[in-house]
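Human:
If only I could read backbone structure tokens as easily as an amino acid sequence. I am handing you a single protein, as its sequence and its fold in token form. I hope you can help me see how the letters and the tokens relate. Thank you; the sequence and its tokens follow:
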Amino acid sequence: MKNDAILIDTQVLIWYYEGNKKLSLTHRKRIEDINNNIFISTASIWEIYVKVSIGKLDLLEDLEDFLIEFNFNKIELKFTHFNQLLRLPHHHKDPFDRLIISTAIAENYPIITYDDTFSNYAELTLL
């Protein structure tokens, strides 16, 4: 039975997708542990497609199939996430990351990230 929910940020999703060695073995094992529910915010999907559209990222044509194949769960943005965003201090300026942080806090999910700015949010649990 899956019981541990973990949110991963956009960079972690991209690194996992690419098989990038920057993703630590510990984090890779957490993502691949069948006892964990791995969540992706729709903000990450939106961010990926924005980066593709402006030429900062190559198209991940099979992203949807990849998410399904690896049993990643998609979190649709909700008003609770936006309400949390209104209360979020402005440590981070990136709007996608702010939505991801707000989602993690609102859902009470720990997050895997390599963005040091996330550590400025005391209510966020980093893995």
